[in-house]
Amino acid sequence: MEKYIVEMLNITKRFPGIIANDNVTLQLKKGEIHALLGENGAGKSTLMSVLFGLYQPEEGEIRIKGEKVFINNPNDANALGIGMVHQHFKLVEIFTVLENIILGVEPNKAGFLEMKEAREKVVELSERYGLRVDPDSLIEDITVGMQQRVEILKMLYRDNEILIFDEPTAVLTPQEIKELLQIMKGFANEGKSILFITHKLNEIMEVADRCTVLRKGKYIGTVDIKDTNKEELSKMMVGRDVTFAVEKEEAQIKEVVLSIKDLNVASKTKKDNAVKNVSFDVRAGEIVCLAGIDGNGQTELVNALTGLEKAVSGSVILKGQDITKSSIRQRSILGISHIPEDRHKHGLVLDYKLEENLVLQRYWQPEFQKGGFIKFDAVRKYAEELIDSYDIRSGQGPITAASSMSGGNQQKAIIAREVDKKHELLVAVQPTRGLDVGAIEYVHKRLVESRDSGKAVFLVSLELDEVMNVSDRILVIYEGEIVGEFDPKRTTVQELGLYMSGAKRSTVKENNHAGE
């Protein structure tokens, strides 16, 4: 029997201005979970896209079960038993969950779709692996976490033996992550072989057998997990020691910047409101974090706050001014910066260049236009400053298409634009999603700097470590209601978990602010 089920030998893949994979070798054993670790833009997703047939390498070869193969497209990959859960989902938004799962392998008899059989298989798979979904929901109406489940079910439906997970936990809650890691262990025990791209060192230590590290497109090394630790892995990944603790002084809390009063926001998927009579304040000089399991009204609350959705009732007050019915641009001009949950749908115009994306919120200002004409030199200079200041890695600098950048560098571009823009309130939704440890350390510093410069920061996070380490005050949301308010120095992850799951709730006193 062959030692390796997959061998990627001396793979080189080039794009304009960048060598994404520079002579990289990766070997996967049958039945193992093999982690692929590296900074944003290190070439991990590119390497997996080569294995899945989305890209063709300029040099190197791929062997499956010892035999050299040519994978020209994803259909070839599927025929070889390779499935992939993509970092940015490949789903058709106006199709149902079931239609997306069977797309391309639709069961039919005499040209007619046999949906009953497909539905039964999907329901059986979802129950067996704890990936419960509603087969009839439209993709555009379900949460990002649910869309992740659909991607995994697509792969399972095709009976793939070699499973590629590209940042699978980036959008999941702590409970969902725990379940997914158990599922992955179950797959490995069944004899499936897993390639697992992640930035989360805890997850690698928990489930992986071996780990291959890439840095700036080059192969750094492969280690056995039992012989290493988080500190060594992070140093291999970024080439320096990384601080895992968030360093910050005591918050200097000042006047109220954001005041939410009795806010109700409709749900797209249920008759009941997604946000129910929510009231809270965020003050200058503090980071208030909204914690909760995905799908408990966070998205709708942020959308009503930033203008992406209309509130049913209640009010949003920014520095004493009612902005409940203001447009998105008016809110932006009045001082709201927004790092959105979905970087592709609401954060970037993917077909635009990086420099164009960096001035999306400001291109009409005198600094960047005169007489209705864009001052392209000023835009280029500003973009170069942000690229340098925020370490945004892009093959062609300011003229790089946003769509060609790695997910982590797309996120850095949004953070650069929103933090650099003059703001009173920074709304940061999952700001470190899909970022490596070095970039996470950097983003946390920027959030704390924003707070310390007297701005209000409203953070929405599913990462309990982030919630506990970054925030000055924690609000827990459950089924659209604020069920608890906590000082991170006086609570525990376990206590937060009880409130997040609805097992406990307290009567939150209005304006009961920690530090008052």
CATH class of the largest domain: Alpha Beta
In total, the number of strands is 24
The name CATH uses for the topology of the largest domain is Rossmann fold
Identify the CATH homologous superfamily of the largest domain: P-loop containing nucleotide triphosphate hydrolases
Structural class by sheet pairing and helices? alpha/beta
Q: What composes the largest sheet? A: 6 strands, mixed
Helix-residue proportion: 25-40%
Describe the structure.
This protein has 516 residues and is α/β, with parallel strands linked by helices. The chain is built from 17 helices and 24 strands. The protein has a six-stranded mixed β-sheet with strand order 6-9-10-3-11-12, sandwiched between helices. Helix 14 packs parallel to helix 15. Mean pLDDT is 89; it is low at 509-516.
Quick summary:
This protein is an alpha/beta fold and about 525 residues long. About 30% of the residues lie in helices and about 25% in strands. The radius of gyration is 23 Å and the shape is globular.
Task: Please name the defining characteristics of this protein.
516 residues; alpha/beta; Rossmann fold; six-stranded mixed sheet; disordered C terminus
Helix and strand layout, with pairings?
Elements: E1 6-15, E2 18-28, E3 33-38, H1 44-51, E4 59-64, E5 67-69, H2 74-79, E6 82-85, H3 97-102, E7 108-109, E8 112-113, H4 115-128, H5 144-157, E9 162-166, H6 174-189, E10 193-197, H7 201-207, E11 210-215, E12 218-224, H8 230-238, E13 256-266, E14 273-283, E15 287-291, H9 298-306, E16 313-318, E17 321-322, H10 328-334, E18 336-339, H11 343-347, H12 354-358, E19 369-370, E20 373-374, H13 376-389, H14 407-420, E21 425-429, H15 437-452, E22 456-461, H16 464-470, E23 473-478, E24 481-486, H17 493-500
Parallel strand pairs: 3-10, 3-11, 6-9, 9-10, 15-22, 15-23, 18-21, 21-22
Antiparallel strand pairs: 1-2, 1-4, 4-5, 7-8, 11-12, 13-14, 13-16, 16-17, 19-20, 23-24
